[in-house]
Amino acid sequence: MSPAPDPALPVPALAGFPPEVREAFQRYRTDGDTTAAEKVVIAAAVDYRPAGAGVARAVTDDTRLIEDLGYDSVAVAELAFFLEDVFDMTISNEDILAVRTIADLRGCVMRKLAGKAGAA
Amino acid sequence: MNPVVTGVGFITPIGNDRDSVGLSLREGRHGIERVEFLGNPDLPVKVAGTVKGFNVESPRWREWTWPSAVHIPKDVVRGLAPHGVYAFCAIEQALSHAGLRAPDIAGDPSTGLYCASAGSAMLLHHNVAQMRAARGARGNPLGVVSSIAGTLNFNLGAHYGIIGNVCGFVSACTSSSHALGYAVDDLRLGRLDRAIVVGAEELNADSLLPFAHMRALSGCADPGTASCPFDVRRNGFVGAGGAVALVVEAPAAAAKRGARPLAEASGWGQAADGYSIAASHPEGAGLRLAMERALADARVGPGDIDLVSAHATSTPVGDAAEAIAIARVFGGRGLHPVVSATKGLTGHSLSVSGVMQAGFCILSISGAFMPGNPHLAEAARECDGLELPRATVARAPARILSNSSGFGGSNVCHVFSAPGRFTG
Is the pTM of this model over 0.80? Predict the structure, then answer.
């Protein structure tokens, strides 16, 4: 079993995110709260959307990364790397190519986290 | 017809706008401060030409800050290196000065972008370390575009929608002089109507300390005297960061939109030493030839030059070589133009050097003054016959010769002329 990360340590990748997102991540780290982890995933998906993508709308499960949030291939790669870095996991090309919507993205990350927890 | 400069933007150790830079140059105010790198007070680098008003020390863009008047979209800043933030701010200023807005140049086939940068050693190191920590399994998708030497062209070309051409120059301390030179040629050849020229460098342990290991930096701890070009006490350059941007236009294109020419880019020349990877030719042979070629290209003689903006970085070998070269071009004909070495005030910002001097030349022409050499106490023997005033000369230069020299023996010189004294 790998040692649990110290929840008191700041996560540099989350600097600049709203306090509630950083707090959610701490809850995930300390309590394994997967709802809190989902909050971080959605905040990241909103954060990495290209600026020129038009008016932001409310993000729901059905919101599509490319068609609705204006993602391009570079922004998708950035989002995937951010999530890999924050959650210390690997998202393969196949994984990310299968992601169309926010629900897909959340499901992808949650499956990875469940796999990590199982492996630990 | 020679191109004209219609806008300048400055992020420099001596000011982040035209007015403050001009005042610093006139009053001989330097922008050098005490610094400490990597928490090691024992390093022999004690001072540097720092950029104020920014915090781009972290490898993580989310921790960066820059002047609030400049809006850099989040999806743009993510791809930038720290010096890309400086470059962005300098270009915004230059466009505004030229009376242009970003939408005016987006998608314009007659606008090109000419960049000079050595890349970001800090981000390259950070990104590669991150990749190695993950045993190659993952890395920052923007690691390449944010850190290698083309980072300015990649990011700024895309952001501003530049379609005339986008290019970058890597010739060490002549990089931005090369960028300006090839922009001038493209404008003269009618390939473009407008060029944005920008040079930028960051200042951090990764960018600067390797020069200390070459024994190229001053170990002097006094910000007021460490950079003293042409002085007998000079003992190495003082590192600096920053960015300078110019808008250069074909005269007809500038006139068509009612832009005011600040100066003419009258001609340029280059030559190489073929001598050493880093040291100048002892008698400045390549620099002398580059000066002569620039004068010939501008169709002027040495007697037409009022001011020489020296490259002089305060190194023992480089300054001596330049002094000899200047003396041979001018002194040999009984001419003594004012020689001004502004790195005494700014330190040496490497890739930015040439375009920073070009920006200072524009301010000298429009502000009718020639900067002095306030850190010069005792001129070195090689400077005999050079006119090196300590204080600012309150006289308008009609024509300026601006020198740049870089590693590998690269030398590039430009001639700038006051409006109304055009040579074209």
Answer: yes
